[in-house]
Amino acid sequence: LDLHELQRTGLLKDMFPAHNKKSLVLLLESWANFRHMLSPAQPFDEIRDYFGEAVAFYFLFLGFLVKGLLWLLVPSLACSALWLLGYADAAQGIFCGCLVTWSTVLNKCWKRRQTYYSTKWGTNRHDAQMHIQDPINPRFHGKKRPSPVDENML
Q1: Beta partners for residue 124, in sequence order
Q2: How many other C-beta atoms lie within 10 A of the C-beta of residue 69?
Q3: CA 95 to CA 98: how far, in whole Å?
Q4: Cα–Cα distance for residue pair 153/135, rounded to 1 Å
Q5: How far apart are CA 113 and CA 105, in angstroms?
Q6: What does the alpha-carbon distance between residue 67 and residue 70 come to, in Å, rounded to a whole number?
Q7: Could you tell me which residues are beta bridge partners of residue 67?
Q8: How many Å apart are CA 110 and CA 117, to the nearest integer?
């Protein structure tokens, strides 16, 4: 059932999602639990299905940033050891280089992850406000079928 299509055609004025106790219990068991606090795995598709894309992207970014900060731990410890050994200037220079490289790689990897989930979920994350992609030709009222060139619906 495509609710956005029903809204576009005027058959549905507005929608208000209700809480689903069964889904909440499943999320509580698989995600929002102290047993899973240190687990890197998060059920992003289930979070998206229940809370929406904006909340899912929030937790996706937080998990991604924590993993990225763990990669920065190794050079920071090495530079701290150099600092304690008396090579403060060299440690600062090395750490600055590592930080610039880390931030560039982290940004590129986040864009890749964001684009993957945006494509998977059918959302457009390039705007300041996230929205569902509009149909290519909104006045078309024929039979929709897959494009022979790509997987878009015609």
Answers
A1: 131
A2: 12
A3: 5
A4: 9
A5: 12
A6: 5
A7: none
A8: 11
